[in-house]
Amino acid sequence: MAIITKEEYSGFIKEQAKRLGFLACGIAKAEFLEREAPRLETWLENGYHGKMQYMENHFDKRLDPTLLVDGAKSVISLSYNYFPEKTQKAEEYKISKYAYGQDYHHVIKDKLKELLQLINDEIGEVSGRCFVDSAPVLERAWAEKSGLGWNGKHSLLIQKQQGSFFFLAELIIDLELTYDHPFTTDHCGECTRCIDACPTQAILPDNTVDGSKCISYLTIELKDAIPTNFKDKTEGWMFGCDVCQDVCPWNRFSKPHSEPLFSPHENLLDMKARDWQELTQETFSKVFKKSAVKRTKFSGLQRNIKFIQE
Ligand code: SF4
Ligand code: SF4
After folding, report:
1. Catalytic, out of 64, 110, 133, 275
2. Among residues 6, 81, 281, 309, which is most buried (max CB within 10 A)?
3. Which range of residues forms the domain containing residue 251?
4. What is the arithmetic mean of pLDDT over 182-195?
5. Is 133 among the residues known to form the active site?
6. Are both 155 and 269 inside the same structural domain?
């Protein structure tokens, strides 16, 4: 039987998202993000984006999806689990869990494209764009607005049943759908574990993160030398950092993912401190063949290893 109502369209999309392996799917009306505008402005004014100059671009587009996608009506927010069953052995040289397997940008974008195709096949001609961790979309704000969860004090999205070890992605389309209620309850309560544990004091009391101090920024985004005032503060993180998520009590609900493409290279988890210190271009290319770690290139990872070592 053909589906013809907004409710049926929305139900179909959520059902297909689940079938494609997404953890959760919520839908919000594509409109100007009024609440976020002053917050983003202050964040940029304070220089919390460090040298990520691109964050200063497209200010209006970031806040208004109708400027990003012609005729945009709905923002579909999706989450995809990356919590691994096993973690690295070498405590001295760690990479963030999200980067263990193949680059999530490609893995998830393929799934989004498939979802858009299914929408076109079943509902009719629908135009849209897929976003995976793309700078012009305020993904956590959309996820909260779509009812997926709340933004914790570490500014990452938390889902009650799953914690926070998942990617967020969006599909912005020109089809009107039924919209979910925004998530309005903050379940962090009095907890300050992430603030207390952050090695660089990057999490501020007003629930924002000074990106310029975050180890993820220092080890991935920053192209210059890592400032020496962070010496002995990176706690062995050489690509990204999971500290604020590892200490979050909601992550006791994390369940291992079942995405084969996120499985690490067979050598990665067993590599010892010595293997990292003696890492060669050849091993780097082999172990991180399709991984997001390639973003730093061999030279970038070497810089981070030396920073920990010296
Ligand atoms: S990722 Fe690490 S450095 Fe960044 S805010 Fe979280 S604990 Fe702090
Ligand atoms: S560690 Fe505590 S304060 Fe931080 S995000 Fe988790 S629940 Fe919220």
Report:
1. 133
2. 81
3. 193-309
4. 96
5. yes
6. no
